[in-house]
Amino acid sequence: MELGTVVCKDETPNTTIFYFVATKESKVKRGLFVQTKTREGLLVGRIEEITKTNRYFMQPETISNYETDINLHFPTDRWEFLLCKVYCLGILDERVRKANYPVSPGEAVKLAENKNLEKLFKFDEQGLKIGNVSGHALEVKLNLNRLFQKHIAILSLSGAGKSYATAVLVEELLNRTDEQGKVGVIIIDPHGEYSSFAYDENFSQKANLIKGRDIRIGIPHLSSYYYRLFLPNLSFAQERDLIKIIEELKKTEDVFGIKEIIQKIEESERIKQATKDVLIPNLYSLNSLRLFGYYDIPSVNTIILPGQASILDISEITNDKKKKMVAAYFLRELFNKRVKRKIPPFIAFIEEAHNFAPEGSSKENFSKNIIKKIAREGRKFNALLCLISQRPVHLCTTSLSQCNTFMFLKITNPYDLKHISESSEGITSELQRQITSLDVGEAVLVGEASSFPLFVKIREKKVIDAETNKSLEDECIEFLEKKENRKKDARDLMGG
Ligand SMILES: Nc1ncnc2c1ncn2[C@@H]1O[C@H](COP(=O)(O)OP(=O)(O)O)[C@@H](O)[C@H]1O
Ligand SMILES: [Mg+2]
After folding, report:
1. Over residues 48-69, mean pLDDT
2. With a 6 A CB cut-off, is 164 part of the ligand 1 pocket?
3. How far does residue 309's CA lie from ligand 1's centre (Å)?
C-alpha cells in the first residue's frame, strides 16, 4: 500500500531520518512501519511523528487580513497535507544493517509488508502469539528462547494491563506442545488474579491452584538457613542453641512441628533460661502465622511440571511477612532443585515484584535475596524470572538490571521512567515519550526479544475470569440481603 512520497526538509533525507508527504487517501498513523527503496536495498523505518501543514495558514498577516473568509477566496482545504517523520531502522537483508546512504527525495513510501516485518522482528512460527504489531494486521510470534534468554520485567502504572498481558503470556506457555518444548510455570499471585486458570475448562487440566490458607512449610526438613532468615533478631548463641535442638529432634523424630521444638527447648537443661526467654516467644510468633506444618503444601517436587502452572494465590494472606516467607521458601527450594536438575526448567512470575524484591534493605525482606540470586544465576539453569511491577523505582535495581527483555505498558511517573531508562540501555528519550502515551493493553517490547522496540496490541485473553469484580452498589445490596437472611433464619430457628 502506497503511503506517500519522500520530500526534502531541513537536513533530510539523511541516513537516520526522512520525511514524506502522505497521499490524501492514505491512513498514516504514528508508529506504523514503512518501507522504501534505496540504492542499498529495502529500507525499513517507523513513523515517529505526523504534522499537518497548510501554507495558506503559515502567515499570521494573511489570516488577519481575511479574518474568517479566507476559505471563500482560496481552495485552502486542498493545501492541507500530512507530513510524516520517519526514523530509519535499517536496510533489510538477511539481517538488518545500518543504512550508509539516505533514501532519494521523490521515492515512494509504502506500508511495510508483513513478510518484511516478520524478518525485521525475527518472528517464529512456533513462538508465543501475544497479539498484533500495533497498527498492522500481523501477529506477533515471539521466539521462546529469545524472550526468555534471560529474565523479563513487565512494568507499567496500575491498570495499564500488566496482569492481563501476563495472563496472555501464561496462556501461550501452557498451550505449547511437547515438540515446541514445555516450560513449567509458577505464579506468585498476591491479588488472586490468576485463579481463573484453575476454573476455566480449557486450562484447568494445566493449572494447579493453591490457596494461601492451605500453604504450609514443612518443619521436619526445613534447613537451618530458614531459621536464620525468618528469625533475624536472634543472636548467634541463641541461633546455635535452637539449631542444636532441631538437629536432635531430626535424629529422633520423623515428624515434628514448631510446638515440638518449643517443648524440647522448655525441657532442655543445657539451654540458659535467658535464651529460652527469647527463643520461645519467637517460635510462638512464627507458629501463630499458621504457615508451618509437618510437610510442605504444595510439595516442592510437584510445583513445577512441564506445560503446567502452579498458582500460589496468597491474596487472602494479610500478613506481609507471611507472604514474603511463602515466596522466599518456595522460590529458594525450586531454585536449589533446579540447580540439581531435579525439576524441569521453569519461569517464576512474580506479581507486585517491588514488594518481594524491594530496593531498600530490611531484615524482613525475606524473599529479596533469593530473587536477586535467581536474577543473577538463574539463566544458567533455566530458572527464569518474570518480574511484574507498577513501581519500578521501588524494585531492587540488581534484579531489574538482570532482566534483558522489558515489556512496558503505559508509564507516566517521571521517577519510574528515569529508573527504567537507567536499568536498560535501549530506552531513548523518544521511547520514554512514547511509553507515556500507550493505551491500555498496548505494550512495547525492548531488549533481547526484539531487535527494535516492538509495539504490540496485546490480544484478548482466552481464559475466562472466574468471578468478575462486583460493583460497590451490588456488593452493598448483597451484604444487606445476606444479613437479613441470617436474621430470618435465626428467627425461624427460635420460633420453630
Ligand atoms: N490487552 C487487553 N485487552 C483488553 N482489555 C485489557 C487489556 N489489557 C488490560 N485490559 C483491561 O484493563 C484492566 C486492567 O488491566 P490489568 O492487567 O489488571 O492492569 P495492571 O495489572 O497493569 O494493573 C483489565 O481488567 C482489562 O479490563
Ligand atoms: Mg495487575
Report:
1. 78
2. yes
3. 21
